[in-house]
Amino acid sequence: MAKSKRFELLTKREVNKDLFIQEWPEVGLVNMESPFDPKPNLVVKQGIVAEMDGKKRKDFDIIDFFILRHGLNLEQAEKSMRMDSLKIARKIIDIGISRKEVIHIFSGLTPAKILEVVKHLDTVEMMMALHKMRARKTPANQAHVTNRTENPLLLAADAAEAALRGFAEEETTVAVPRSAAMNALAVLVGSQSGRGGVLTQCAVEEALNLKLGMLGLTTYSETLSVYGTESTFKDGDDTPWSKAFLASAYASRGTKIRFSSGTGSEVLMGNSEGKSMLYLEIRCLMCIKGAGSQGVQNGSISCIALPLSLPGGGRTVLAENLIATLLDLEVASGNDAMSSHSDMRKSAKLMTQFLPGTDFITSGYSSMPREDNLFGGGNFDSEDYDDYLVLQRDFLVNGGIVPVEEGDVIRVREKAGKALQALFKEFGFPPITDEEIAAAVTAHTSQDMSERNRVEDLKASERILKENITGFDVARALGKLGYRDIAERILETQKQRVAGDHLQTSAVFDAGFQVRSAINDPNDYQGPGTGYRLTGEARRKLTNIPQAKDPRSIATRSLPDKPEMWIEEIGEAVIGTDRNEVVIGLGPAFGTHLMETIIGLPHTEVLKELLRGIEEEGVKARVVKIYETADCAFIGHKAAQLSGSCIALGIQSKGTTVIHQKDLSPLNNLELFSQASNLTIETYRAIGRNAARYVKGVPPFPVPTVLDNMARLKYIVKTTLMHMKETEQVDPSRSPRELRINFP
Amino acid sequence: MKQKKFDPQKDYPLASQRPDLVKTLSGLNFSEISLENVTSGKIPLQEIRISPKTLEYQAQIAEIHGRFQLADNFRRAAELARVPDEEVLNIYNAMRPHQATKADLIAIAEGIEKKYRAKINARFIREAVDIYEQRDLLKKERLMGETHG
User: Fold this and answer.
1) ipTM entry
2) What are the residue ranges spanned by the domains of chain A?
3) Smallest Cβ distance to A254: which of B16, B50, B91?
């Protein structure tokens, strides 16, 4: 078979580094439409469930039992299960039906019924549904803060920057478990140096994780994983009951928790029971709800590439997030683990959570480069910050990250570094030098840091646990050392653990530690004019990216204080009689109010080249200023009316040029060079020569131009602004003027 | 002065709306937790943590917003607030698959019921035992003998 060059190129595209497979429902490699998924039903006999989703009581596994005991509202189930699935699906996106009513219906649906309902929604409907159903009105985001060398100083500096950038939660983890306490401490101090109110966690195995929460070195946890089949649950060394107990253990110490689940984990662990990935995820979510978790991080999370390898992956992952909200759970909606080689594919996937808004758009935006991300995350990382900010600005969407000034970032990184340095000294931990702080302040990756003594840092980390150093101890030490504001904030994190307001659904803190949750900031979306709208101060803050320029400053940049007087008007232009001339018509601002073309070619040089080209062909040139119009075609046409040869050149200030002839209609022409940004000094000379060749009646040379598809993108703003300047000089009553040119 | 009654509809967030109701497990008033008191050593730093009563308030708040399971969780937590860290961790570990025999778990349930009046947790553990037995998630008595031997 012949080989297509186009196919060859396509094979090499980033998206084709992703693996795509066809569905294989028998082993569970299917997103949400498996022929083996059960049909919904619920049979209750004398108050006892005899059958659920086609399974008899004697066949119930631990998940079925838990869902029936804790996840499902049996009283409501009688009503909800009788409702038509399509009707329920329509209620979800019906703006006339409140979120509360939908949640009430869902409290009585079995997993198979939920699947049947959600299958009726297409991707856009799911996005609309998520917009209405997420619990908290104001969206937020979560950051990952880690580094390969587990440098505590860099952790603190990055935590401070992430806090300043607006992340409501920061999650760190470990390369070696022994560094858990140190990493938790560094992120606690760092985050509160950047902004008060940031919740922090350190993802480690459950017992150690709980211990960190008990010490108050972390304020939330999302390590509580659940699975949709019994055998996978057991492989995870837990049961729904043990996880529910753990949830209560955290709450008993004032630590916020959310569970973790996601499509694909069961099939990955080899135990899907031949069910679709989404069906199993629904079982997880009902366990999570039953366990009394306020929320969940889901959206496939670390398995993301698995659902995405199959048809409908993006829609399924969105459905997961949606179902969490339908069960009234806070949702931190994935977008953390690497989902594709293709930026286009990653961004498109992101949009399904970003545009509707979720409680946390990502369950871990890599606040440092992905090479330092110990979660295997970094789907979006510190190098994507500006892209993300621009997307927020484009769609006027609050994605939970705010633009920052470089100076402020430097300031908070330094502040965090100094506080940690002082704290280390106080606790007798391995010293942090001023040189290290200087490096951490400007660092991008762990490669920018000098090596620390890992062994000594690990010993210090162990001392934290051994000596039970608590959040209070940290606050007290920093207070004594004069880091009062950081101390106050860390104390406040401990104080809030006493009040427990952040244990409620979808809770985050603002910079002043005012809690914002589904209780006091409930999502009240019910159509246009309701719900979260990016307005006022929030809108100003989010759209005000530092790279946005004042448009008033752009086009005038080239205007000197005293305009060079090289163009002199010597009277009204007259119709020429010389048949051997080209008239050059200049745009109204050319050389007087604007001094260079769009790509910065000085008007003097451009005009010189046009004249030189004309002269080279032995033709004379006359220069006039056109005031009646700023349009290139009309400038050329007006000049042609004055030309003894009938041939003229028209040029706008931005550099667009036309060769015109008297008898042609204004919008017709001999040659048009419309892409001013592609015209070089040499091109202008060639244009001059061609104009002269029309006068002589000899064939013109083809003028070489560059094809640049990015030109319009790059220059459209400047074009607009320059054209505005040009138009300002238009005077419809002023006839063309004859010019004398004195080149400086 | 008599304290105003707690109103789950209006009193959230407790930290700003009803700090007067919030006390630490050790009995300190919420307002006593200040940097001055912490740095001067005026207040003991032990057991400055959430109290069963505060968790009960949070349970009531969750409940009136229709979050019954979350309320159940807070009520289990309220009972656990007084249980020492190590003991909480031990109970959790015992509840993991094949970690404890039926007798172990029932003993744990009885223990916390007696010692901490943790009725809800005791019931929860017994319910787990019932299901674990059906699903073969308990540690076998026989195996236990072997490991001890």
Assistant:
1) 0.96
2) 140-543, 555-741
3) B50
